[in-house]
Amino acid sequence: MKHIISACFFLFSLCMSAQSVTVTVDQNVTLKEFFKQIENQTDYKFAFTDQIDTNKKYFNQKSTFKQTDIEKLIAELNKTASVQFSIVGNNIFVKQKSQTTKPAKKKSKLTGHIFDDEKQPVIGANVYIKELETGVVTDVNGKYSMEVPNGSYIVQVSYVGFKNEEKRVAVSDDTKVNFNIDSDSQQLGEVIVMNNKAVDIKTTQMSVNKLSMQEIKKIPVAMGEPDPLKSILTLPGVTNAGEASSGFNVRGGAADQNLILLDGAPVYADSHMFGFFSIFNADIVNGLDLYKGGIPSKFGGRVSSVLDVAQQTGDFEEYKVNGGIGIISSRLLVQGPIQKEKSSFILSGRASYAHLFMKLADNKNSAMFYDLNAKINHRFNANNTLSFSGYFGNDLFDINDRFASTYGSTMGILSWKHKFSDRLNSNLSGFYSDYRFNLEIPIESFKWDSNIQSYGLKYNWNYQPSEKFKINYGIDGLYYNFNPGVVQPTTSDSRFNYKQLDKKYALEASAFIDFENQITEKLNFRYGLRYSSFYRLGPEPISTYENGQAVVYNPLYKIYEEGTPTGTINYKKGQAISTFNNLEPRAALSYAFNDETSIKASYNRMAQYIHILSNTQSPLPMSIWTPSGPFTKPQLLDQYAMGYFRNFRDGDYSLETELFYKNVQNRIDYIDGADVLANNNIEQVILNGKARSYGMELLFRKNVGVFTGWVSYTLSRAEQKTPGRTAEEPGVANGNWYLSGYDKLHNLSIVGSYELNPKWSFNGNFTLQSGQPVTYANSYYEMGSIHVPNYSLRNENRLPLFHHLDVAATYTPKPDKKKGWQSYWVFSLYNIYNRKNAASMSFTTNEDTGANETRRLSIFGIVPGVSYNFKF
């Protein structure tokens, strides 16, 4: 009997040990989840002491076992897990491993740069180590850096539109490895190109959108010219005043509340031809980042957003040429080495020629623009690089010899990048930026010139004491010279006399420090502080007013009027007229539930010391910048944002959702009928109010495959409030909150790109927005035989719904050709169903019938476009 029982027990044990299981473990699998996988497939039970926390994660790497014998599985797990498993009968015992483990491997730095096939640094490329299942993203210089245990690894580099690159790298001491990745023009059938647009779950940065030039060039726009600035209008929270309008509005902010940087230098006007084109040439732009909230401490001076645009670096090894010929403009880019592997240049130019067609049609009107971009880089050694970036652009208008205007920008920035060590580097840069506007009206025999100039110096340091802690800090200085305008007669019998409006001068200085701290594997915290000072300087005469009020209220007519100066204070050169100081704290927090899901929150305070004087919804070329001073306080922003972020199917799809609330103090408002053009005492038409905006943003992306794109939607409200200064004053709109001119309740964009085959690709863009708030006439009164419209409260009405659908097709005749002359065609249709979107509504009287009329002004119907693009 005893032998029979022993035999049965032996057979039972054999059956138990013969069981096979399929199990997957990784760093996110808890012990309890592992138990469940085993117990669901076998009769084994687990036993453990109180020292073992089953909700803890004890596995150090990802492993998958398919139909593996249980004993072999346990043996393999014991090699890597931080607990010890042992099989006794039908039980698996779990205990802590003894502390006599092997010493941890020494860690070393693995660094390098990622370059594309044109030797340009690739921003935002993914660098991934397979064995460690860890990775990083390249910075604005295409650089990556990570600390890894010494050993041999396969390093993989991937980026949208480029072929994946792999290298086996041996790391023993600090190691530097560069990668060159080739563009992937062939996307056949099942070939899937990974996109780097999956959400970075763990980083604290939120409220920022990045667009590569591959994406920008696929978005159809009017006139068929790829436009970096127009492309950001497809992102959530971004709108503008309508078709062919300059500027853009972010989260209900005005156009002058956006800081626009080109290679780090400020830009004061962003468009050509009154908004038809942006000043950014798509050929030379490397990419752009739009910060809408959670703005790092290194940025300051505006209260709505930061648009950071980077130009390409010229090729250090060979000469290259590319360009394009369009319907009304063409462009050309040349780049190459000055001294191979040491210095390079890149030069790009654009010009329009619509004025030539006007002359052929015997049209005396003329409108054209041109611009030049240039960049020179020189590498002294591995630790020192010097670069110069420059931009020059001009617009020229001549309307029937009755109106002539030229305006444009000039910008230059010299930058020295120095690497002290792998952990510390710096960037010292000095820049000059100028915007000028000239107007001449021959029939009135006068001309008017105005401009704003700024000179700046920046010195920034980046220090990384460890992989989990980074410090960015620096100082900035910016000197302004504002010339509101000089009026000059052009003939001896002109009714205008020479008049120089009072020039204004200011100095803006700041210092910042920003910390990035990985507190735990799931929790990341970024916090910082910016301290800014602003000095309004002489020489300048400042008018004084009774009770200090440059605007007075007339209770009889119930209107605001210009105050009468009572005297003048003359400030000497360099004397401080007004001084402002502000602390601008910033903070951002992210918590990752796992590798696919996180929540984030941010707060930032920002101060803005310069303002555009314009009472139109879209800034015009003649809009004047002015500094804060005795009657114009700095704008102060407090913005709060929180969001939920999710990647699906390993980043194939991504979702970004955010809620935001913005509050702005000291927002400029204007009295009814304010005249801001050539006004030497602008304080007589300005009131100080406040603004707020709040809303929800959604961005859903499809990141991989032959069909890619995104859907963005924003539901938001933007309002202003300018209460009366006394009990009897009504303020603006009776002192209540009213819709600002930048309010768009609904804003929807759908962007799609389909790769049919290597020769043909198709792109589409649908935009739908609520009409912008306007003020309509709700009645009229008669003065003699003239009907005078009477208007409602400010912005009580809206323009009709704004929407259009744009499509484009790209044809590449020889997609396999990689050398010599390469070309492709782009065919586009803007506003394919010919929607007559209203740019404005005017109220007038019909000259024939005398009846009152409301007239809609539309800029575009359907607009075809075609361009031929080439490179060699």
Automatic annotation (TrEMBL):
Main location: membrane
Domain of life of the source: Bacteria
UniProt-annotated location(s): Cell outer membrane
Domain annotation TonB-dependent receptor plug: ranges: 201-301
Pfam families for this protein: CarbopepD_reg_2, Plug, TonB_dep_Rec_b-barrel
Keyword Transmembrane among record annotations: yes
Domain TonB-dependent receptor-like beta-barrel, chain residue ranges per copy: 380-834
Membrane topology: Multi-pass membrane protein
Key words, A-Z: Cell outer membrane, Membrane, Receptor, Signal, TonB box, Transmembrane, Transmembrane beta strand, Transport
Signal peptide annotation: 1-18
InterPro entries: Beta-barrel_TonB, Beta-barrel_TonB_sf, CarboxyPept-like_regulatory, Plug_dom, Plug_dom_sf, TonB-dep_rcpt-like
Family: Belongs to the TonB-dependent receptor family.
Name of protein: TonB-dependent receptor domain-containing protein
